[in-house]
Amino acid sequence: MAGMSPSERRLQKELMSLIKDPPPGVSVDAGIAEQNLLHWIINMEGAAGTLYEGERFQLQFKFSNKYPFDSPEVTFVGPNIPTHPHVYSNGHICLSILTDDWSPALSVQSVCLSIVSMLSSCKEKQRPPDNAFYVKTCNKNPKKTKWWYHDDSV
Amino acid sequence: MASSSSTEHTVKDNAGDGAQNPETKEEDKKDDSMFECNICLDTARDAVVSMCGHLFCWPCLHQWLETRPNRQVCPVCKAAISKEKVVPLYGRGSSKQEDPREKVPPRPAGQRTEQEPGNSFSGFGFGDNTFHMSFGIGAFPFGFFTSTFNIGDQRPHAAPQGTQQHMEEQFLSKIFLWLAIVFLTWLLMA
Ligand SMILES: [Zn+2]
Ligand SMILES: [Zn+2]
């Protein structure tokens, strides 16, 4: 691990642990991450017994060299974007730990688990009410969005 | 905008636990990770503990506090946290083989009084350190400038135009000017 920046060292540790001991329904594409530690693709399965059971999703993580002080940019990518009140059809996710409530003690694994849990607690599959407008007007980077978080349990 | 509040979905973990030495026994792994910094996931160096009991490297925690100066909370449990209220940990044989360039502002409680002068040039200088450092060196480039502009017109021994010496002086003064500019830019960026 010599010669690595602090962010690379941490990402390397996270990658090793995610490869070795992935949480249920989550797996990292090790090939892509090893090519460029700042860009990961995570495969995610909808949890059994939820509205997303049997579905497969892909999450993209982009890290800056200020990680973990700076939050990763996390979006759904690929052919299947989950239909969920907090997930826009362009893959952007409205989840406060990805911006305002980010903490350097969080990790790729804990972000994935939060997203699994967010999907699992969904009662009705639907897009956010402002989806059409948001997708047309938003910045490509969801971290540039000034999200307005509120406490609902969906 | 629709959203999901963090608290209920947030799951804390400690990625990287014992990832480096697969041979160690399970119990050993747990013991090791007890002393891992909650930010860099390495064994904490210059360790400090918050009032809520969470362990960090002082450089890591310091950088986090600088990142969010207006909202200083423990990265793990979100309890209020401040520089003054963390406790440094001193193990047996601490304060040895550290690379001095990696030292960030001295840990609170000021036990380590020795000050290596080279410290302030490290790329890791934050906050107060950086400020004082730039200020101290800041006098230099202006000195450069005045001497640079004086060459050629006020100096009694200025060489006549067109001679070899004159060209050399012009060349030198240009170099000095560039040095001064580069130096100033560096100061501004630092
Ligand atoms: Zn650390
Ligand atoms: Zn805490």
TrEMBL record, chain A:
The keyword Zinc does not apply. Residues 6-154 form the UBC core domain. SUPFAM superfamilies: UBC-like. It catalyses: S-ubiquitinyl-[E1 ubiquitin-activating enzyme]-L-cysteine + [E2 ubiquitin-conjugating enzyme]-L-cysteine = [E1 ubiquitin-activating enzyme]-L-cysteine + S-ubiquitinyl-[E2 ubiquitin-conjugating enzyme]-L-cysteine; S-ubiquitinyl-[E1 ubiquitin-activating enzyme]-L-cysteine + [acceptor protein]-N-terminal-amino acid = [E1 ubiquitin-activating enzyme]-L-cysteine + N-terminal-ubiquitinyl-[acceptor protein]. InterPro entries: Ub_conjugating_enzyme, UBC, UBQ-conjugating_enzyme/RWD. It holds the Pfam family UQ_con. One of its GO terms (molecular function) is ubiquitin conjugating enzyme activity. It is an enzyme of class 2 (transferase). Its EC number is 2.3.2.23, 2.3.2.25. One of its GO terms (biological process) is protein ubiquitination. Keywords: Transferase, Ubl conjugation pathway. This is N-terminal E2 ubiquitin-conjugating enzyme. It comes from Phyllotreta striolata (Striped flea beetle).
UniProtKB/TrEMBL annotation, chain B:
Its main location: membrane. GO terms for biological process: ubiquitin-dependent protein catabolic process. Residues 37-78 form the RING-type domain. SMART domains: RING (SM00184). Residues 1-29, 90-119 are annotated as: Disordered. It is found in: Endomembrane system. It comes from Phyllotreta striolata. This is RING-type E3 ubiquitin transferase. PANTHER family: E3 UBIQUITIN-PROTEIN LIGASE RNF5-RELATED. InterPro entries: RNF5/RNF185-like, Znf_C3HC4_RING-type, Znf_RING, Znf_RING/FYVE/PHD, Znf_RING_CS. The chain crosses the membrane at residues 171-189. GO terms for molecular function: ubiquitin protein ligase activity; zinc ion binding. The keyword Glycoprotein does not apply. Keywords: Membrane, Metal-binding, Transferase, Transmembrane, Transmembrane helix, Ubl conjugation pathway, Zinc, Zinc-finger. Gene3D superfamilies: Zinc/RING finger domain, C3HC4 (zinc finger). Pfam families: zf-C3HC4 (PF00097). SUPFAM superfamilies: RING/U-box (SSF57850). The keyword Mitochondrion does not apply. It catalyses: S-ubiquitinyl-[E2 ubiquitin-conjugating enzyme]-L-cysteine + [acceptor protein]-L-lysine = [E2 ubiquitin-conjugating enzyme]-L-cysteine + N(6)-ubiquitinyl-[acceptor protein]-L-lysine. One of its GO terms (cellular component) is nucleus. Pathway: Protein modification; protein ubiquitination.
